[in-house]
Amino acid sequence: MALTGWVLFAALVLGGSQSQVAPAAGEDRERNCSTTPYLPPTAVNTTLRLQALRRAMAPFNISAYIIPGTDAHLSEYIAERDARRAWISGFTGSAGTAVVTQTQALLWTDSRYWIQAERQMDCNWELVKDSFISSITDWLIAHLSEGEEIGFDPFLFSIDTFKAYDVRLAPANRVLKSLQDNLVDKAWTNRPPPPTDSIFRLPDSIIERTWQMKVDHIRQQMRDNPYKPTAVLLSALDETAWLFNLRGNDIPYNPFFYSYTLLTLDDIRQVHCSFVHLHTLL
Ligand SMILES: *[C@@H]1O[C@H](CO)[C@@H](O)[C@H](O)[C@H]1NC(C)=O
Ligand SMILES: *[C@@H]1O[C@H](CO)[C@@H](O)[C@H](O)[C@H]1NC(C)=O
Ligand SMILES: *[C@@H]1O[C@H](CO)[C@@H](O)[C@H](O)[C@H]1NC(C)=O
């Protein structure tokens, strides 16, 4: 780096440290769940939240409930309304899976997030410093008896994720039980409402291809495909946004809107949860 570079670098470092806000007392400390527990001010008290979730679990005959950190479109960035794992555990990192039983609550996450998790979770939670699904299934097999059922929300699992759990749980006779209702949502009072921002169409001046051209192209690929698919289902939010040259604002800092698209050779069906109807925009 040239000298002027170093000067600029030093100025940035000094300027940066000057503008830094000092952390409030204890915010930079991790919890200590020993006999005399210490909780930093950043920790969330999850006692009542866990009580409510366990009450919601009771009627379903499940011994454990799995709470992943994604939304129903398997988005990487999610809206606060879908941050179920963050709400139940206090841990807001972008990766991690929680498992709750009637007596225990555990969070699995990778090494990027261990310190953050120790600052955000209270002593109701145990941190497991591992992020492989096999670690979760090992724990479930060790702590649940044969025949016991493990609840999950099918909208929050890809087929691959489901298989990764099932391939280990099924031979051990621990039964995955798909529950239509999300049990965290049942427990979550004051859950943020669905977004109401509108969907907008990209101006013709900046699009490369019209949505009709893109739809034609996909249908051509369907006809050419040896499996002869009769439909294509789009559930990822960027897929529908891209295909129809539409944008939205349902997730902070993401130009997408909640939607599903079912495209057949002669029909297009869409489900979305915004107030503007897609067909009025197409
Ligand atoms: C947690 O607290 C206990 C008792 O106060 C202390 O002995 C222990 O060293 C602490 N652990 C950490 C990691 O600070
Ligand atoms: C957490 O909240 C519960 C219920 O309000 C309360 O009884 C408990 O003392 C709180 N725990 C801590 C560590 O503040
Ligand atoms: C409830 O779970 C137990 C195992 O914990 C299982 O043996 C039983 O068949 C389940 N009952 C129902 C109605 O699913």
Could you characterize what this model shows?
The chain has 282 residues and is α/β, with parallel strands linked by helices. It has two domains: 47-187, Creatinase/prolidase N-terminal domain (Creatine Amidinohydrolase, Chain A, domain 1); 200-281, Creatinase/prolidase N-terminal domain (Creatine Amidinohydrolase, Chain A, domain 1), CATH 3.40.350.10. 33% of the residues lie in helices and 15% in strands. It has ten helices and eleven strands. The chain has helices at 3-19, 47-57, 84-89, 114-120, 133-143, 159-169, 183-187, 211-224, 237-243, 278-281; strands at 64-67, 97-101, 105-108, 126-128, 149-152, 175-178, 200-201, 231-234, 246-247, 259-264, 268-272. The strands form three sheets. Strands 4-3-2-1-5-6 form a six-stranded mixed β-sheet, with helices on both faces. Strands 8-10-11 form a three-stranded antiparallel β-sheet. Strands 7-9 form a two-stranded antiparallel sheet. Strand 5 (149-152), helix 6 and strand 6 form a beta-alpha-beta unit. It is globular and about 65 Å long. The protein starts with a helix and ends with a helix. The model is unreliable at 1-19 (pLDDT under 50). The site of one 2-acetamido-2-deoxy-beta-D-glucopyranose has 4 residues, from helix 2. One 2-acetamido-2-deoxy-beta-D-glucopyranose binds next to helix 2. Residues 1-19 form the signal peptide. It comes from Synaphobranchus kaupii (Kaup's arrowtooth eel). Keywords: Hydrolase, Metal-binding, Signal.
